[in-house]
Design goal:
The chain is an alpha/beta fold and about 270 residues long. The chain has one domain: Protocatechuate 4,5-dioxygenase, Chain B (3-Layer(aba) Sandwich), CATH 3.40.830.10. The chain is about 35% helix and about 20% strand. The strands form 3 sheets. A 6-stranded mixed sheet has the order 5-2-6-1-10-7, sandwiched between helices. A two-stranded parallel sheet has the order 3-4. Strands 8-9 form a two-stranded antiparallel sheet.
């Protein structure tokens, strides 16, 4: 990895990958919630103008962009305490930003349709509640196209790199591990595979080895146990693509919940080419 360039760091926002965990993360912050809040507080003085989020809880045939001026808060889950359904994240939408995202994608040969009715799903509003609890930064979502590969999602992020130079935070929201068949609602000791997979990702990020990350199913330990389906891992590649070719990861949290849900979150900072 190349040596950091102060000029690059002052002009380009980092990108961010957040593990949003179970919906109860909105009420039970653990150690990850305060870590995200501390990162958000560091970002606020940089005059953030908007946020673009990819969440696995909006998967579509073809690519779509949230474009409404006042998105609602979608409680897209069941069987949780009533307090969770009373939560609301009233951040404004950003129609102009949605148009700009569409133009950048089009310039990269990627077509997308706007969706003015789409609300924030919990993959977006739960982490944003911790990052920016005032809900005063305009935000939009980009859908996760059904059937997209890690390389496809990386390309989506790459197309949006220019946003970082003008105060837009690009955020991938997913989960470092996500095997819900192993979710039992308790807090046992973390399963060994969870740490093995998570630390492989961390070490591979530190090397800047994007090709290995994209080939994680073959190269990472216990990849298919960590992710029986890839939807919650793919948003990592959205943040990775927007980070460009030269980045330095900063881990914000490595918490593990319920023994199988790794809550790793990290920022990818620009470094000199």
């Amino acid at each position: 990895m190349n040596t950091s360039s102060p000029a690059a760091q002052t002009t380009l926002l980092p990108t961010l990958f957040v593990s949003h965990g179970a919906p109860l993360f909105a009420l039970d912050a653990g150690t990850s919630g305060p870590a995200l809040r501390a990162f958000g507080q560091r970002m606020e003085p940089q005059n953030l103008k908007g946020i673009v989020v990819m969440s696995p809880h909006w998967m579509t045939d073809g690519l779509k962009i949230m474009s409404g001026a006042a998105p609602g808060t979608l409680h897209d889950f069941g069987g949780f305490p009533k307090e969770l359904y009373a939560l609301n994240y009233p951040a404004p939408g950003a129609p102009a930003l949605a148009h700009e995202v569409g133009a950048l994608l089009h310039a990269a040969g990627i077509e997308a349709a706007e969706d003015a009715a789409r609300p924030f799903d919990h993959g977006t509003w739960v982490p944003l509640m911790h990052l920016f609890p005032k809900a005063n930064i305009p935000a939009i979502q980009l859908s996760l196209p059904i059937g997209a590969s890690p390389a496809d999602v990386t390309a989506l992020g790459r197309a949006l790199q220019p946003l970082r130079a003008r105060g837009i935070l690009v955020l991938g929201s997913g989960s470092m591990t996500h095997n819900l068949s192993e979710f039992f609602g308790g807090e046992p000791k973390a399963a060994p595979y969870v740490d093995a997979f998570s630390r492989w990702v961390e070490q591979t990020l530190a090397r800047g080895d994007v090709a290995a990350l994209q080939d994680y199913v073959r190269q990472a330990p216990a990849a298919l146990r960590a992710h029986p389906s890839d939807d919650h891992f793919l948003p990592l590649f959205f943040a990775l693509g927007a980070a460009g070719d030269h980045f330095k990861p900063e881990y914000l949290t490595r918490e593990v919940r319920y023994g199988m849900l790794a809550m790793d979150s990290f920022a990818l900072h620009a470094v000199g080419a």
